[in-house]
Input
Amino acid sequence: MITRRHLILGAFALGAPFAASLAHADQLADVKQKGQIVFGVLGTDEPNSFIEPKSRQLVGYEIDIANAIAKKLGVKPVFKQISVAARIPELQQGHVDILAASLTHNKERESQVDFALTHFVTGSKVMVRAASGITGLPQLAGKKVLTVRGGTQETNIRKAVPNVEVVTFENTQQAFQALRQGKGVAYVNDESSLLSDYGKLGPAAKGFTILSPSIGNEPLALGLRKGEKGLKAVVDQTLRELESSGAAEQLFNKWYGPGTRTNLAKRSFKIHTDRI
Amino acid sequence: MFFDPTILQSGQYHDWLVQGLVLSIQLTVISFAFALPFGALVAVMRTSSLAPLRAIGATLVEAIRNVPLLAHLLFWYFAFPELLPESAREVLYANNPEVVCAVIALSLYAGVHMAEDIRSGIRAIPATQLEAARSLGLGRIAAVRLVLLPQALRASVPPLLSQTVNLWKDSSVATVIGAAELMYQAARVETASFRSLEAFTFATLAYLTVSLLISAAAYLFQRRYPVRTA
Output
């Protein structure tokens, strides 16, 4: 027989998770106490974060920044690979402490997460198959464009070309593979990632062009849970120190500068603001 | 607001979710239309008196059944078209390859599971039925078609119902090859609006409703065509 006692206990059991989530200590104190900080990274976006084939280690521009932050906090960095679509949910649910996952800082996301200082600025661009004869964005109307699910790419291309047909995949590799196989005429991603993929093509690169107009400005920043002012202050401080000591520019040149696959001649931004 | 049902009732997000639901239903219906005859054929092959047919049937079932559906979808979408000749590939890419490859993968996968269920149904029919049919002068194929299969299909309706509901739920896996079905659209709504609770509630209710409708259809079929015990 279900008594009133059972109902009250059941109500507590269901209510407990909600109550627990309301009372949470400052994340900075938690992290220092645990002795480790969990970074959510993509691991598939060269050169921001990717797995080096020979050493099979996670390396990249954002990995180096994450390591610098962990060093400043005096804790061990732990990296968790997550997908593009799962970034914000994983942060909100507490599975990761900070997102270092090529996360674009935009107005829509400001209601979900807090952003640290912008550490990279790139544009969202379109790579097309040369054989399609497409030389401008309006020619993409009615054509099939491939990209990754859950990021800013789909929103950007739909805004730039109203009648475009977009097909999204779980990760950027599959979308790029589909482009190479001819399943679509174009592929959308951050310019830095496109340049990296273009470099990887080798001789096949002749069959592809990156259209010059940018369909979205992508300031990338680390993502933090909303309201974590203590942790944000430390992260921003670390980034400012990296910039003022020249280490930030060195990191840029190491991963994006002359001689790398992306091969950008000069850094066009400074790490100084978290306003967009 | 914690749960905002208005985005599900009208507007752009509602349209996306409904488009996704429609495509999911289309994928299921088309795959079912291919899977059931394919399953019946393989079941008959496995129970035939000719050893080569039995071997082919068994190989098909084991090869398809023991590989995850996700692997099937990725194979048919990324690997199979590369094996086709150039002209066939162009034709495929011009006609919604995501949906076509999803239908192929789902039909084969559901088909072999249905084949095993129909084979159980065939085994449930007493052997005397087939013998009586042959002794009345019906040829091998006619005996199977007119006497064995109708009875076997009626006997296998409960497991076939499960397989059909599985097929309906498995259509959600087609999201990995870019088929814009319900789960794909629900994820898209979540990315655009951050309203994951509403989007996935819609998807859950849609899957539940259609599954219950499939069960109701099977129940009505069983009432109309009951299993006649000997």
User: Anything to note?
Assistant: Chain A touches chain B at residues 85, 88-89, 108, 111-112, 146, 149-151, 154-155, 167-170, 174, 177-178, 181-183 (CB under 8 Å). The longest strand of chain A covers residues 113-129. The longest helix of chain A spans residues 4-22.
